[in-house]
User: What shape does this take?
Amino acid sequence: MIKTAVWSDDEAQMFHTLKNAGKQYKEIGETLYTAFGKFRSEDSLKNKWRSTNWSVLAKTREKKEKLITVLTDKEAEKETLIKRTLANNERFVRREEARTDVIIDNIKSALYRLPKPKKSDITYTPRKGTKKYTAEHVGVMVSDMHIGASYDYEDTGGLSQYNLEIFKKRLNTMKHALLEIVERHRTMYDLPELHIFSLGDVVAGQPGCGQWNDNYIHLGTMEQVTEGTYALRDLLATWSTAFKKITFYGIYGNHGRVGKKGQTKTSDNWDRACYRMLQLSLCEYDNIEWHLPKTWWLNPKIQGHSFYLCHGDGIKGTTLAGVEKAESKIAGMLEQRLDYFLMGHFHSPAEIQTNSSRVIMNGSFMGGDMYSLRDLGKNSAPEQKIFGIHKKKGITWTYNIYLDGE
Assistant: This one.
């Protein structure tokens, strides 16, 4: 059986009109085919005429036409309202601009009528001679070198790259940048002492000891320790010539673990081995003082201010709120009031003022790495922090040293 094509409302309406006009079925079929492209036989037209309740169809069509009219009227009303609103807004803007012009003119007029200021009794007199301000100490944060890590632009889609040569270049940039900053500040006051806060993750890590991907570590563990010792030795040897005294604080990080977390003591750490080798290699430098704790933290007092030093891997979460919560708990455990909380680990330099202290987070030598780029969507710049420490004012000036700078 051949199915008859479905009748549309317009086709049925034309059929009804032609039939009432006295047209024959054959002529009607030809007209409908010309108008709608559907062939209707005389028998199908007869069946359609007999089976259709034309009065109901007419009422349905009338309802549709009324609905369309209502919707059209609503759209027209909406358009009129929009035009009226825009016109009102334009008038409002013109009125406010006029008011603003009047206010500005009144202010100008009032300023012109003000009496000329009298000469102040207080005058600035520049300091004469060689007198300087109070001496300060210098603090520099060194962390998250990850020596041995290696990935290229192909691995990261052109976002970042890192290897041993890039690390050495960035370390050399930092070495000279610190000396340049110190030289500028010494035109104002003396900077006799340098405090080096080495906050861990000197090495990239031993295979199978952490959640990091071993496929992006291209140096063996002993090579990482050796390269770290050489790099830090050159850094300290150079800086020791620029300061009367250097104090080195060696904190170990999570990447230096010698086994999986919980398998060995926390203090069994390749960062600590690097620090010990560094101390032995510089044993003849009398102006370097060493603080290499077995614990994961230190709480030295510098220029009368309490500093808390840690790597930061024990802090839960990656948000600043988590860091602030951890700082609050640690401050409650310490015997002396905490002034500054120094940490690394998160690879993003930041500062947070809490109720008890100022949290200072260091950057990294890597910048964006495989984990931060892929899992966190972060591509931080390779940076390290340096600051001045005043006896009364605490930390005064601070800089983020950009390690890819010239």
Q: What stands out?
A: The first strand starts at residue 136 and ends at 142.
